[in-house]
Amino acid sequence: MFNIILFGPPGSGKGTQSERLIAKYHLKHLSTGDLLRSEIAAQTVLGMEAKKIMDKGELVPDEVVIGMINSAVDNNPQAKGFLFDGFPRTKAQSEALDQLLSAKNTAIHVFLSLEVSEEELVKRLSNRGLTSGRSDDTNEEVIRARIAEYHKKTSIVADYYQQFDKVVKIKGEGTVEEIFNRLCFEIDKRLS
Ligand code: AP5
């Protein structure tokens, strides 16, 4: 198995690059944001509770997202590896993920961190908000709250993986193709 965490602030390109990476490396894409939006679309109790939190730009409780990831990993026993996008976002989520993978005799192989300036993030998300229908993209206040939540609670996740020497910083500005090539270069080094 080969497992990747694609990390970065809101709007750094995790979803965009994940689509390309899973096609190239045949990994299973697990995005907690997508899983939560599926719950919202299905109007489940979990989805309705999560929506209130997401619309404020805050993080959904750890136990909710950890439970979703546990089920998703269990439901994909044939996967060649996982690409985690938007998870883990707290130290508790990181520890839970390590335990979950260790129970399956595997681990995170590389932590790829997309680095993008705040102004570029706000520009990308505001542009997407014009057409995406994502309620957390529609006003700049919520976009900035998501970025603040990232600095307050999520950026420390990189420190957690740094202690295991797994973090690689990737310049997340440039064309989608340029960034994809930078990511592939780091992955290929570890696969060969
Ligand atoms: P989530 O769905 O994970 O969203 P996010 O982290 O805010 O990230 P985005 O999807 O907005 O951005 P991205 O980095 O994927 O960039 P993208 O490729 O889309 O989370 C949403 C919410 O769910 C959270 O706020 C939280 O409430 C909750 N949640 C999720 N996971 C959680 C967890 N683990 N714990 C607790 N709560 C959780 O690109 C953005 C835009 O930029 C697109 O329009 C794209 O076309 C464009 N773009 C991409 N690359 C480029 C480029 N190189 N140049 C120009 N434009 C580009």
Describe the structure.
This protein is an alpha/beta fold and about 190 residues long. It has one domain (about 5-25, about 80-190): Rossmann fold, CATH 3.40.50.300. The protein has helices spanning about 15-25, 30-40, 45-55, 60-75, 90-105, 120-130, 140-155, 155-160, 175-190, and strands at about 5, 30, 80-85, 110-115, 165-170. It is built from nine helices and five strands. The protein has a five-stranded parallel sheet with strand order 2-3-1-4-5, with helices on both faces. BIS(adenosine)-5'-pentaphosphate (AP5) binds near residues 10, 14, 33 and 93.
Count of runs of 4 or more consecutive helical residues: 9
Query: What is the residue-averaged pLDDT?
Result: 96
If strands are numbered along the chain, what order do they take across the biggest sheet?
Answer: 2-3-1-4-5
What does the overall shape look like?
globular
Helix/sheet category: alpha/beta
Which radius of gyration do the C-alpha atoms yield? 16 Å
Can you tell me the CATH topology?
A: Rossmann fold
How does the major sheet shape up? Answer: 5 strands, parallel
The count of DSSP E runs of length 2 or more, i.e. the number of strands, is 5
Tell me the strand percentage band. Answer: 5-15%
CATH class: Alpha Beta
The CATH architecture: 3-Layer(aba) Sandwich
Ligand list:
BIS(adenosine)-5'-pentaphosphate
Fraction of residues in H or I helices: 55-70%
Termini, distance in Å? 14 Å
